[in-house]
């Protein structure tokens, strides 16, 4: 007859040792029973970290920071900075720029989902390798507010997903004011650099 492992313990301490073995064997049997059940074991899965979205920066501060180094930022204001970066929200800002040759009002708008609203507006625009269309214009009295001698230079950029940034620089210290200088403080190339800066994508 086959004897169990517990039954083979003899001699001094057999009773105590047998008791211990019985408890050990019972625990092993319970573990095997649990393994044989139909309920699969759940593998530990690390919890995914909470997804955070950076807040939109203050639009006026951003515009001032994007000015060329030799141009100083004076008065500035705007709207569109928001701790809720997930909301589709337009940005508007202005800054009075001064390169030492007179004041120049510079304004920017950042707008999502503008493809349909601007259908036809970008006809003849230059298309960049990433599909962004860029339109440059020079106008007299661009905001129709009657500033004597005022001109405005504008760079309008529309990305393939409809996100638009339009930047205009005037040769006057404010809209509707007489010209303070012959031309705006920023060149077309500098305005384009501002319009294409990826920092504006916070409003996409």
TrEMBL record:
Keywords: Signal. Residues 1-29 form the signal peptide. Residues 33-56 are annotated as: Disordered. The keyword Signal applies. Residues 46-56 have a biased composition (Low complexity). This is Uncharacterized protein. It comes from Streptomyces olivaceiscleroticus. The lineage of its organism: Bacteria, Bacillati, Actinomycetota, Actinomycetes, Kitasatosporales.
